[in-house]
Structure formats: structure tokens, C-alpha cells
Specification:
By secondary structure, the protein is mainly β. The chain has two helices and 13 strands, in the order E-E-E-E-H-H-E-E-E-E-E-E-E-E-E. A hairpin with a 5-residue loop joins strand 10 and strand 11. Belongs to the calycin superfamily. Fatty-acid binding protein (FABP) family.
């Protein structure tokens, strides 16, 4: 067994194993301070009220250190594809339609995203705890905490 520090992956028998497998379909069960987060993004009142009623579902496809995350609601859909450790240009369609320079890295068993652009302190962190997918999204001084359960 060999630990690969640049990716936090463990290599066994020539194969690389990522710390956690996020793959699956996840349904939201808790959404704390989503309105505060949207205010920090500058999203208008009517859109915030409509968004607060939605129950997003995340569909995550993970192949090694390559991810595609679909966030689905009855109102909007958002897709983000990335490889950990590689910076990319992201347009946050479905949220505030801003362009960010984004990078997602492994920090132990967590995926940590930093989005550099117009808004300071913007990004998110995903991790799995038990049978729950946790997501903390930040913008400026606001933190939204979401919890998802695996869809059955």
C-alpha cells in the first residue's frame, strides 16, 4: 500500500483508490441558511423565495479523481464536471451566473472547492458522514449547511 500525497489517494496493487466514493443519487433533507447564502450572492427576493421551496437532488458520478455533479430541481438544473487538483473556469448557471476560477481538492475525506471571482470567500465542502452527504457552501460571511440522504 502506498499513500499518494498529491491526491490523498491510496495505491494498492497498482490501482489508485480515492478516500471516499461520493457516487450516487442524494435527496436533500436539511437546508440551513440557504436564504442568507443567496443574499450574499446578490440573488433577488422573488428568486430566493422560489428557490427556498425547492428540494434539490444531487446525482454524483465519480471515476477516480474525476467528478460530475448534477444538481436537479423542478426549476433549474446545474452540472459541474471537474478533476481534483485542476483549476477550471466555472460559470455558476442556475445560481448567480458568475464566472469563477475554481479548483476542487481532496482534504482527507472531504472535497473542498475554492471559487475565485467577484465574491470573496466563495466555495463549498462535501463529505460523507454515515449515510449522509454533507455540503457546506460559503459566500462572503454566509454559510449554508445542507444534508442529503442517499436516494432509495
Amino acid at each position: 500500500m502506498l499513500f499518494t500525497p498529491d491526491t490523498n489517494a491510496v495505491q494498492t496493487s497498482g490501482k489508485t483508490k480515492m478516500p471516499v466514493d461520493f457516487s450516487g443519487t442524494w435527496d436533500i433533507v436539511s437546508n440551513v441558511n440557504f436564504d442568507g447564502y443567496m443574499v450574499a450572492l446578490g440573488i433577488d427576493f422573488a428568486t430566493r423565495k422560489m428557490a427556498s421551496l425547492l428540494k434539490p437532488q444531487k446525482v454524483i458520478k465519480q471515476e477516480g479523481d474525476c467528478f460530475t455533479i448534477h444538481t436537479l430541481t423542478s426549476f433549474r438544473k446545474y452540472e459541474c464536471s471537474f478533476k481534483t487538483g485542476q483549476s477550471f473556469t466555472e460559470v455558476t448557471k442556475g445560481m448567480d451566473n458568475r464566472t469563477c476560477q475554481t479548483v476542487v481538492n481532496w482534504e482527507n475525506d472531504r472535497l473542498v472547492c475554492v471559487q475565485k471571482g467577484e465574491k470573496r470567500n466563495r466555495g463549498w465542502t462535501h463529505w460523507i458522514q454515515g449515510d449522509e452527504l454533507h455540503l457546506e457552501i460559503t459566500c462572503e460571511d454566509q454559510v449554508c449547511k445542507q444534508i442529503y440522504k442517499r436516494s432509495e
